Amino acid sequence: MHTQDASGIQIHTNHSLDNFHLNVDLELPGSGVTAIFGPSGCGKTTLLRQFSGLQRSTNAYITVQGVVWQDSKQFVPVHKRHLGFVSQSANLFPHLTVQQNLLYGKKRLASQTSMEQLDAVVELLGIESLLERKPKNLSGGEQQRVSIARALATDPTVLLMDEPLSALDFARKNEILPYLQKMQRELRIPILYVSHSPEEVAQLANHLVVLEKGTCIASGSIADVLTQVNLPVSLGEEPCSIFDATIEELDNKDHLCRLKVGEQDLWVRNHQFQVGKIVRIRVLARDVSLSNHKMDDSSILNHLYARVSTIANDTHPAQALVHLEFDKKPLLARVTHRSLRQLDIHPGKLVWAHVKTMALLG
């Protein structure tokens, strides 16, 4: 028995195709970027195809904002699901200019998007200067930005993005990622983003779904999923924590900037960001040490007062993963069992977490 969520997305599917079986039961938020992450062959694209209606399952229940798209009695075809879709290839019409490509998609789907809304999409993706060009005169990154703008020009209920950066080289990916980050902050529709790239997921995801062999092994906010010590999920080889912070101060003398996370401060190198900007931080568990005192006489600048939530064994028997919380933010630390005993660290204890280094993800 399923109850409808009037604001989010529900996907339940139990589907077999040849030797592959997909069995997931998901409740996803109604806005922000939900990254569907996992290795090749885990079911990411199959899940997206079933959600879109391109691949029909005989046993599926799908709702979006309280509207049933599929259950045992009905199936809404793909052309009536009001989806925007972006794939690996831009698939622009070569004989049309960028502006004509945008207007064609809007007209073909009888979109109610006004010209003002279309102008806003053009500005969001930074393609104002490209409108009179044809696709052959665009770089790969520019073509993909136009493809995203064309999908948004139809004013979709949900935007689906299936490995949208996988065909781009490193430079072109870095060119387009800031625009995707802007979309994440400014769009109010849900975006389902399929990727096997840890960097893309770390920079873009609000919610994270991790698939393995056709099943969901984790689903939740990216901060919570990455810091589960009993089922560690890593973006790459190392467990990490991800959280957002606000730039509070620029120290031009020492070329640093002060970030505010809840009521606590962090110092990082000045990347010429503006005060007030929200940035995303990634901290590897191996770069966090613990103590019972603040250690002001250390070269480490960043000290967070945190409470130990959970302790679990790590992959090596000498080590443990410690889940901490500071100002309602999760943080992972990798320490030895010997250190835990010597410091008498246990769940519920307040400790100082010393962050040796961190990465700003933009």
List keywords for this structure.
362 residues; alpha+beta; Rossmann fold; 2 domains; 6-stranded mixed beta sheet; 8 helices; 36% strand
Structure, explained:
The chain has helices spanning 44-52, 98-108, 115-124, 140-152, 170-186, 198-204, 222-226, 337-343, and strands spanning 9-17, 20-28, 32-37, 60-64, 67-70, 83-86, 158-162, 190-195, 207-212, 215-221, 240-251, 256-261, 264-269, 278-284, 288-291, 302-313, 319-326, 329-336, 350-355, 359-360. By secondary structure, the chain is α+β, with helices and mostly antiparallel strands. It folds into two domains: 9-235, Rossmann fold (3-Layer(aba) Sandwich); 241-360, OB fold (Dihydrolipoamide Acetyltransferase, E2P) (Beta Barrel). It has a six-stranded mixed β-sheet with strand order 6-7-8-3-9-10, with helices on both faces. Strands 13-12-11-14-20 form a five-stranded antiparallel β-sheet. Strands 15-19-16-17-18 form a five-stranded antiparallel β-sheet. Helix 2 runs parallel beside helix 4 (140-152) and helix 4 (140-152) packs parallel to helix 5 (170-186). It is globular, with a radius of gyration of 23 Å. The mean pLDDT is 92.
